[in-house]
Amino acid sequence: MAVHASTSQRRQRAASDASSDAGDARRNKGKRAREAESDEEGDHERDLANLDIKDPVKTCRHLFLQALISRRTMPLDLADALYKECVRLCRVEGPEPLNTFIAKMEPGLALCGLDIKTTRDQESGQGMLVLVNTMQDEPAKLATEYRAEEIAFFKSIVERIMLAPKLSYSITQTDVIRLAKQPVTKAGAIQLLKSFLAKGWLSLHESGRIVLSPRSLVELAPYLREQFDQEEDEAEDARNRTVVDCNLCMGIVTSGYACPNEDCGVRLHTFCVAQRLGNDGRCPDRLDDKPNPCPQIWPRDPQTRKFHGVPIGVAALGLGGDEESDAGATSDVETGAGTPAAAKKKGKAAAAKGRKAAASGKKGKKRTKADEDEVEEDELDEDEESDADASNRQRASSSPAATRKSSRTAKKKRTVQSDDDEEEE
């Protein structure tokens, strides 16, 4: 017994020593990695300190612009952090505020047809910095990474979003794919949608629907006003005009509130409501010096004590907070499962399976050889139809061989029908 106990103790000590050695090795490895990283940071800082920056302010502008050009849109908090880092790297003494820094760059950017605009995300209210192209000439239109048919596809998406029912200003991802026209294929439309989202031209709402991004609303504002502005018809239908500016910030409203009065065309972003309505909630239409101002008092939520009107945007669809309007839309776009072709193929497979089950599950009837041949032939026809090209199917259907095959199939079906009638009699 003592021998066994001592052997067990030795094994435990050996295992403990091995575990301790492994832990020491990991700690030493981590320590060496941190030391190497620290040495690299030290070398980087020394290299920066040794740089001969003749004009720190100019270099700081170059660094900031390079970062903004690569992103095109940037949250204001990130822009502020980036500016501070550029100031540190360039060793700028007595840095000025970010707004002043940007304002001093605007004259030079205007010569290049660029401008830096400040806007807010209509859903979150987060401040955004957007670098926009102000030139609308032909060279500017050609300076794009997208081909003509891809730009036409994007325009069709914008049009569908702007003319969406119930002033929802959004469409499902499946609807986007359905807008594809030759030479843009369904697979190409999926890749283009991913590109538009990555480049900041479109945004993915939390409901899964596609909406216009802050970049599009700022840079494409002249195009949107030219194509969809219905100000001339304001007297006829003020509520349902497509392009309406916020009564406070003057930006196009695609998400926010409209005045509850149907005859009033006032709209406000969600983050502009409190500032514009004040404490009494009276419609700001009275502040525009009109002869017959809107007398509406906007309702107030009893719990949050915030004013609200008729929802504009995705909220107008009444989807609810947790309900998604396009469930599984992201995975559908990635896999192509949400395309009409995939749905059609899935429907055909289900129909073929249903016919097979119906033919094999008849009670009180004997399954004939003709029934089996018919089911098998239907399955083959479905497979051929889903895999063959449309033009090939059209040529095949008009050929003499296809005509003879169709005649044989029709004759076989009539024979099966007559056999069933005889059995019933």
Notes on the protein architecture:
- The protein folds into three domains: 56-133, Alpha-Beta Complex (Aspartate Aminotransferase, domain 1); 144-279 and 308-338, Winged helix-like DNA-binding domain superfamily/Winged helix DNA-binding domain (Arc Repressor Mutant, subunit A); 341-424, no CATH class.
- The chain has 425 residues and is mainly α.
- It starts with a helix and ends with a helix.
- Helix 2 (56-71) packs antiparallel against helix 3 (76-90) and helix 13 packs antiparallel against helix 14 (369-387).
- 55% of the residues lie in helices and 7% in strands.
- The chain has helices spanning 2-50, 56-71, 76-90, 98-111, 138-142, 148-162, 173-178, 186-198, 214-219, 221-228, 273-277, 329-335, 340-360, 369-387, 390-398, 400-424; strands at 73-75, 114-120, 127-133, 202-204, 210-212, 256-258, 267-268, 310-312.
- The strands form three sheets. It has a three-stranded antiparallel beta sheet. A three-stranded antiparallel beta sheet has the order 7-6-8, with no helix packed on it. Strands 4-5 form a two-stranded antiparallel ribbon.
- The model is unreliable at 321-331, 334-343, 356-377 and 379-407 (pLDDT under 50).
Characterize this entry briefly.
This protein has 425 residues and is mostly helical.
Q: Helices, strands, pairings?
A:
Layout: H1 2-50, H2 56-71, E1 73-75, H3 76-90, H4 98-111, E2 114-120, E3 127-133, H5 138-142, H6 148-162, H7 173-178, H8 186-198, E4 202-204, E5 210-212, H9 214-219, H10 221-228, E6 256-258, E7 267-268, H11 273-277, E8 310-312, H12 329-335, H13 340-360, H14 369-387, H15 390-398, H16 400-424
Antiparallel strand pairs: 1-3, 2-3, 4-5, 6-7, 6-8
Helix pairs in contact: 2-3, 13-14
